Protein 1
Amino acid sequence: MKADIRVALAGNPNTGKSSLFNVLTGLNQKIGNFPGVTVDKKMGFMQLPDGRQAEVVDLPGTYSLYPKSKDESIVFSVLADKIDTARPDLVVVVLDATNLKRNLLLYTQIADLKIPVIIALNMMDMARTSAIQIDVEQFSKKLGVPVVPMAVRKGEGVTELKQAIAYANKVALQPDSIDVNVFAPGLIGQISNELQVDNPYLALQLAHQHEHLRYLSAEQSERIETLEQEHAFHSQKAQAAETVARYNFINDLLYDTVKTPEAAQHESFSNRIDHILTHKVWGFIIFMGILLFIFQSIFAWSSYPMDLIEASFVWAEDVMRNLLPEGPLASLLIDGVLAGLSGVLVFIPQIAILFAFISILEDTGYMSRVTFMMDKLMRKVGLSGKSVVPLIGGFACAVPSIMGTRTIENWKDRMITIMVTPLVACSARLPVYTLLIALVVPDKSVWGIFNMQGLVLTAIYVFSLVSAIIVAFVLKFILKVRERGYFIMELPVYRMPRWKNVIFAMYDRSKAFVIQAGKVIIAVSIVLWVLASYGPGNKFEQIEQKYSSTEFKITNSPEELNRVIASEKLESSYAGMLGHAIEPVIKPLGYDWKIGIAIITSFAAREVFVGTMATIYSVEGDTDDIQSVQQKMGNARNPETGLPVFTLATAFSLMMFYAFAMQCASTVAVVYRETKSWKWPAIQFAYMAVLAYGVAFITYQLLK
Amino acid sequence: MDLSQLEVGQTGIVKEFTDLEMSVKLMEMGCLPGETVKVTRVAPLGDPIAITVSGYQLSLRKLEASTIILQ
């Protein structure tokens, strides 16, 4: 889509920036990458009242333009990069009307870069309830920019904002908020001259940030470094002086335009909630209760839609079998693609529910309370309170969580968090766990309120968190770095979750899961089908011939015969050979060669396990008898002993293996991107493999 | 007297900082010399603490609070 104008949304965290982005762009959005960095770039399109198309980019939420963390350095580089195609024509700075003072710091910095700006003065409804009086007209006049009062949650001001964007100036008309030349006299002028920068504040920021800016050449960056030394430039002192000057400007501005009552009302309400939610005893009990509730719900609420999806796949399989002529194509489509796909799609309800809860916890402000409560505990094991959110996010998916560790400023804290996050039971393991639990754990209620299967799942989730913490504790002594981290963090006031955002999160994540995981899984399913359906030489023909003799036809029914033939074919196929090759290694863990195939394919992604199981048992199974994967696996018998393949010991050993092994290509890739070296993903892969094998071995030997 | 010595409910006015790096971050968050700060709560395990400053709630560790000198 070609856009006529490019608009960026900037603002502090918790200002409703993402809500505004969702309201402006609707479902017309996508996730891209900022060039050269790994921070997700959320962008979308919207129609302006005058018919033009605007591209909207949602910048990460920041408190200032100084790069304290990786996420934050993006904002400046996008705004300053002259050659970057992402450079916006207009910035909409979203301000929280109930917290203007701190919000305005970022605004004055962006305004001083002399990019055309519009202020979206959000949360006006909350400001009104708190009796905060803002003279919007005066406010706009003093700053020299359009100000649109809004209440995005209620849909107020959206039309006005769109109009303001349509009528926005092409050049910045706002006056300087402060004189920046005093912070680095001489240096600013020289940088401006030599690099042809026409804006003094941009020149000052180049002095601060030249090392992180992609578009500066190495010579330019070195030149700035030399100039800084010549002028005895001290970056932090200059930053401190600038911040003080900006707050002086802001205080003057607010004195004339805003009247705030002594104690804001919503704050005391928030305080009352905090009394309970961060209480010494209740705080932790409530937190555990919430976690338990989430995992119980995932099981309880998803069963109906999951049954529905499963049933429709069984139906589709049936229809296709009747429609398509029997042959390799039908077999590929049904046993390969369809079987693999059903294994993935069936977990959409669970993933959607999990992400709904995570987005509610974040949206209400509860997540930062969890951080607040857990910090001391987390620091004991070498993590930071800020590691809690990535770790809990790890329950959903390690990939965004590892990207989320960018908010941790301390290198060692961040490294340890990255190393242990993949141990937390992610949603990709959920299919594996639910399938295996359903196979070996009875569906009984315990004490009348809990479901036994749900309890086992909760236990596995808690266990995964405990193991992550133990590993972190060990790493704390291995990684030795002298660097300090800080924990200066906003505790936003409690708010009702924005249901639209929750629905967006559910939709977004499920879509990403289906597209990203789906691609891998379909590819793996097809490769697997080929491996399982063909074998070296003329082995398959020999098997057919062996059983075509009349003596077999007399003693066995045709169904039995087909099953035996299919089973022998699978065993002598390429996949069977691969499985047999690793069987000696995995036998002590209680796995046969078929599970071996699933483990190998699962190194692409864990959820492939289910699809692989489905494919293996479909290829082998009787084609007329259509069953779900779970039934197929439950019926699986060891050909030698006649006992079920999936015993309690095997199933739990398998769950332990999946709990610890790094079976996720995307996580390996994201750890590489985040750490910029293969060393860390390699160490991570190795330690997790050793743990997986060890724990699975012990589990099987104990339960056997 | 520094911020970490205040009890819950007590207020003080920021005078200066003992740590430049920390001060840059604190000032960015609206915790500047001349601002009134109030300790609103302490985390269940005794650390970190939450303060009210510039009209919102900020949490920080006691060690960090000890770099903020009060008037």
Note: The interface with chain A takes residues 20-30, 32-33, 40-41, 43-48, 50, 52, 54-61, 64 of chain B (CB under 8 Å).
Protein 2
Amino acid sequence: MTELKKTALYDLHRSLGAKAIPFAGYKMPVNYPLGIMKEHLYCRKSAGLFDVSHMGQLVISSNTQSMQFIATELEKLLPIDVLGLGKDRQRYGFLPNKEGGLIDDLMISNRADHYFVVINASRKEIDFKYLKENISKEIDVDLIKTRALIAIQGPQSEKILSSQIGELSSLTYLDVKNFSYKGETLWVSRSGYTGQDGFEISLPNSLCEVFCKNILEQDGIEPIGLGARDTLRLECGLCLYGQDLNETITPIEAGLKWAIQKVRRAGGEREGGFVGQKKILKQIEEQPYFKREAFFPDGKAPLRSGTKLFSDDKGKNEIGMITSGGYSPSLERPISMGYLNYNKFNVDEPIFGEVRNKFFSVTLTKLPFVPTSFKRN
Amino acid sequence: MKFTEEHEWLESDGDIVKVGITEYAAEQLGDIVFIELPDIGTSVTKGQEIVVIESVKAASDILAPLDGEITEINNAIVDDPSMVNNDPTGEAWFFKMSLKNQGELDGLMSEDEYKKHIE
């Protein structure tokens, strides 16, 4: 086994008493002494600091070509409106393969003279290679290793972060802005993956520890591990690549049609023209029979990723699978997301999940389990 | 009290032993949200998975510490699994069992031996 990588915050995690686990090749904190449940609730109520430096940070730029050229090239790989993404704005997107499945999902920012893309830790080498090989040679793709990535999330995040870097009230959800901090530049976006208001900050590795220590000295913020990051994103119905998304699931099946702007859909000004367009455009028109859904297990047992779903309690008619599931600290009950195959299932039929050879009934519900609370205009 | 390598404690009262998990185990598991106990009257053999315990992050099993039969279960921890995090060696016992062979209890670890085991 290759040795696990460490982020720039590794020593701080240790000093804070984090319990470390291997995750996507990194030694990452799963929780701190507070524990997943209390960390989750603290973030919802006040604010949390997350080390997400294991994620990939790509800078896409060109010495010879315009941003418009780069956007046009990116639109050949991403089914989203890149050309229409204004300066200092960020949006969600993904990289489909030829069959319409997803290589990865991502956040892309227009940072005036380059695009900045945040990708999943487990996919960064794959994405990097794919982009290098499939984009114009006039465009440079860099996977930057010199910067850390920190998320500050929760209702108190604006107040806490602004105490260190200055006024943030002019930023709304998915705005992007540079801030100076100890002579270096922080790349700040008003976004995150908890479903709450918050920020992500890309900053030089060398500054990361002092920055985080200063943030954690403020009242109302606690360090939060990957355990609570998972329960927070699940409550808001956000997909985790490798569980809810993979190379065989299309964005339409995953319920991500909203992320494909009309300009790229059939009849739009820049319709199609992206990898995987055939299947994705067809599914937008026809509705897929295989769809991501939300479930409430009726009992107390959590139904986790990998749980098979049946329309009977004998395990005869398999209709789908749970891809993310666990206990919701906010709702104090188990919640799950997964996929249902409507060729094998009618909505008036019961649903059972099989755990340890037992069948537990579940009820279809709607996402999100907990409403999002972004700061919109 | 006696202890197993699987982080269970056993307290004997005549022919019956009360079984629970140690503070160390409860802390390692994290916030416990679901517990499934065996039925009363179940015959169990040492090492058999007899309790399902789920924390916020994962499911784990608790193994029968010795051979015997389940005589009583603590439904209070099923109703409120967080009791196990709060009072693992007191109120939050899991089940009581009669042992097939009382003598086997002596083969388990003492408190001092268990403390060394988890160091």
Note: The mean pLDDT of chain A is 97.
Protein 3
Amino acid sequence: MNNEKLKQKRFTFTMSLLAILILILFIISLNMGVVRIAPLDVFKTLFGMGSPRDELVLVDFRLPRMLLALVIGAALAVSGAILQGVSKNDLADPGILGINTGAGFAVILFIYFFQGSMNNVSTFGILLMPLFALMGAVTAAFLIYALAWKKGIDPVRLILVGIGVNSGFGAVIIIFQLKMNPQDFMQAAVWLSGDIWGANWKFVSIISPLILLLLPFAFYKSHVLNLLNLGDQVAIGLGIRVERERRFLLLVAVALAGFGVAAGGGIAFLGLVAPHIAKRLMGPKHQMFLPVTALLGSLLLLVADTLGKNILAPTEIPVGIVVAILSAPYFIYLLMKAK
Amino acid sequence: MSENGFQHGHNTNKTILNTSISGAIILIVGMLSLIVSVGLSIAYGAADIKISTVWDAFSEFDANVASHQIIREIRMPRAIGASLVGAFLAVSGAVMQGLTRNPLASPSIMGVTDGAAFALVVTLAFYPAASLVGLSFSSFIGAGLGVILVFMIGSFSKGGLTPVKLALAGVAVGSMLSAISSAIALHTQVAKNMSFWYAGGLTSTNWLSIKILLIAGGIGLLLAMYISKSITILSLGEEVSKGLGQNTFLVKVLGIIVVLLLTGAAVSVAGAVGFIGLVIPHITRFIIGSDYRWIIPISAVLGALLLVLADIAARIVNAPFETPVGAITAVIGVPFFLYLARGERRGL
């Protein structure tokens, strides 16, 4: 019992620490960038007393982008955690499995056929984009699941099939990408490797409610995830309808990834790294480790976005590229350690 | 693959003879089909050219005839380039699969192509005036970087280089290198030049690129043939190889040099054309068995044939626009990869 209390304490401590870190970073990030704004002016502006220029930069450009970074980070991290739990494979990630590429494919198709250019996506288009991303993600997930199915799902086969599906979508995307004009080509390429591009309030108001609705739902299913971890036999014995719950959780993970991609492009590895760190901090119990994963995901993506904006300024390095450079080595380390 | 090896471990003289006969037949048929396809590839294009004109361009070349010029300066190098690149990628994949005894080993999966593309971007970014020879050289170095990284991850990891680890290590190294290249490309604004390396294409092949291909790849092919017997033995297992008194380390080093030469040359000319190195060796082993003295030349011919045909398809599918040839090979390669991934005999 004492042990349980200790864990609870540790959970509260970690969560508050992460929240404080996010808050600090949020404020630092607000006053960094091509236009530097002093912390005092940041506060003034946020309370509606800043200069018009500061207001434009902060409220119209930086704030929506950072808010998006927070929700996308949480979505992808939790999506990865669920995928790892469901597939019982520590190396699962929506990016590696090809779910991101599937969503990206749908979005590229949508832009190619209905919008003409990456730069002037209409308001109606913004409304439809998450829907397309979701459909693409679900299609990819269905393909992977169906192709990996062979009297059940073997974790290794799932990953290999995912890699295959990933490169298949990648090849088709290239065909459409090459038909765009050179500027759009590059923009699409950047976006596919992860870039928070539609950073405006319209986007924030559409994407964040979707993600913020799904997250608590995932937390609510923690119990099921714990039981699935014990193995199918045990879970069935404890009265869980394994296959049904698994598909259902998979759908939640895929939807989270899809919405994340709609707003942030194909950010890979975040869904892998955040859950791993969280597991190290909190242990395998999903009630504690999922919320920590979500906050860690937000924090990491905000760090990556801030770094990307400032490290090679005035060039902005898209957030997905920063995430890949930072976390691919960690992934390789995990790979080398795995049996 | 290794199972195949054991089946053929107790070869009788009769089966050896059979292998030689069927190998020779496949080689001859393959070569003939290759010549026909190269002819078709030369004849087919934006300007309609008859097969008879193709023949004339060789037998009685006339510098004043436009179609003869097109054939000599544009279409011939392209068709020959396609066959060389296809052959090199296929042999490179065959050698990798033999050395690692890993059915998924192939240039595009092992981070080789991403490594080469990375080096090219770095070169273009910091030394924009680089010549074709300079670019080829840098793509060799990049290809080497990719292979060495993936191999190192494999050999330092617990439990060795299993197929799934190899694939994941390739993905990780690939996405890291391509992320860094994108960052550099964005910063230095060479982004537009990059599109080509990721899509793969043979449009800009000229006689100079053929020369580079022939020199680097030719050495690679000869070396591959030279070590083919040792690879056959190595593909039976490390212990077998050592037990038979083979210097396993030397064979591996030579094998890696072969892979570097062949893939580096291919990627520097055609960009990232995937899956040929994965698909062709499997098909070849399926036809001819596990003797690398036959697998290597037949892979070369079949790889050449596949890429020449894929290049023709790339021009037909959406004429008058060209579809990236890498996309065509992926259409063939992805289902094959999935088939392998689902396979029972993975030895994971």
Note: The CA atoms of residues 104 and 192 of chain A lie 6 Å apart.
